[in-house]
Predict the 3D structure of the following.
Amino acid sequence: MSHSLYPAETIAAIATAIVPQEGSVGIIRVSGSRALEIARRLFRSPGQSSWESHRIFYGYICNPNSGSHVDEALLLVMKGPRSYTREDVVEFHCHGGIMVVQQVLDLCLQCGARLAEPGEFSLRAFLNGRIDLTQAESIADLVGARSPQAAQMALAGVRGKLASPIHQLRNTCVELLAEIEARIDFEDDLPPLDEPALLQGIETVLSQLTELLNTADRGELLRSGLKVAIVGRPNVGKSSLLNAWSQSDRAIVTDLPGTTRDIVETQLVVHGIPVRVLDTAGIRETTNIVEKIGVERSRQATEEADLVLLTIDGSVGWTAEDRIIYDQLSHHNLILIINKIDLVSDPTSLECPNDLHIKVHTAAARQEGVDRLEQAILQAVNAGQLQAANLDIAINQRQTAALTRAKLALEQVRATIGDRLPLDFWTIDLRAGIQALGEVTGDDVTESILQRIFSRFCIGK
Ligand SMILES: Nc1nc2c(c(=O)[nH]1)N(C=O)[C@@H](CNc1ccc(C(=O)N[C@@H](CCC(=O)O)C(=O)O)cc1)CN2
Ligand SMILES: Nc1nc2c(ncn2[C@@H]2O[C@H](COP(=O)(O)OP(=O)(O)OP(=O)(O)O)[C@@H](O)[C@H]2O)c(=O)[nH]1
Ligand SMILES: [K+]
Ligand SMILES: [Mg+2]
């Protein structure tokens, strides 16, 4: 990616998903000083002599070389600075499908636009001051959200619910810094520094930073979700559990041990957490070459999982084979699934290892126990905080790292004041805190941070 920090060039990209036969409308977005000129060359709107901003026009897209019609379409005109990028923006709303959309994009490129890099429209919105970095990150989160709650959280970020408190904290720190620096530069002309007020200001910033940092785990859960592997010996009911949970026939179930060979994956949402569930091949020693590969894949999936559902057959009880699998999983976050309890008269009497403190009874073939399983998952990942209603924002890993640095810097300021070190020392740490906060909002940002953030975006965003 080679984003130009000097957005002189006009950029163009397809802004909608391009799946053949799907998506009835396709949008080509153009931003930059030549956007209107390009639209004028390509778009014919009968009866419209001039294009008012923020209106949509009906007409035809024509190839200016041959004069032939490319599509019947709509043109949206948004003159800067009242646009997503704050530059002149035009959008061609075409018939969907790849053929028309690709031709219109090519025509835009022939007329002098350059193909946009992933995230480049949003990068311009940031560079031109329409959004800050937390809002840009939230836009990417919104597009990538895998649960309604994750989308809700991202939208709060788009609307500035994270930007505004962090801007405020940074402003407070800048004011405190100015107070101290004034005493360094013009000590004699000013009343003495109000130290209790300064310390109070630092305490307030610190407690708000702590509050923001407390949202990190929730943010991570909602954004990244969980990978959950169903693991166990053959025929205990792993695939039946996947089917019961996803209310589908996603996985093949038979009474033959060794039915599942490849990983079977499905996407679910558990109380707002996007969950990828992997059903795996039953683990056993086998000479069958296909099954052997399946068992190897099962081990691999287990390694990558955030949470493992070790499944056993309750009608048989805890066996030596279960123990062998369990011993290999000891370093994982684990839930024990005791399945087929419909065949057991007293499920509580089953002997299992005591250190497996989360146990769930299920009868997967009868779709029983899914609610208990979901509650156990919330417990295993400590998601109680997710329910807290007043938290509509949550910070991401990058923000967590920077806010942690800001917090350490402010704690250092507090300690420096306590140790009666000279004023210069106070300002050094306070400046470090301001810089860390500026990294979050983008007030203080390097090109490599921008590169990392905007390259995550999809094309046309
Ligand atoms: N067709 C289309 N749909 C879209 C977008 C788009 O670019 N095109 N968006 C793109 O992601 C999202 C909407 N977000 C947008 C955000 C800001 C502005 C905008 O023009 N803002 C200006 C002017 C606001 C005004 O007129 O008052 C501004 O904030 O200065 C447009 C879209 C989702 N839907
Ligand atoms: N009674 C009863 N039978 C079950 C239950 N769950 C699964 N079974 C049966 O157990 C057999 C094996 O189920 P599967 O879901 O294929 O088991 P698996 O663990 O995926 O097996 P492999 O893929 O071969 O490792 C099937 O005949 C299921 O109908 C249950 O809760 N109760
Ligand atoms: K089976
Ligand atoms: Mg199976």
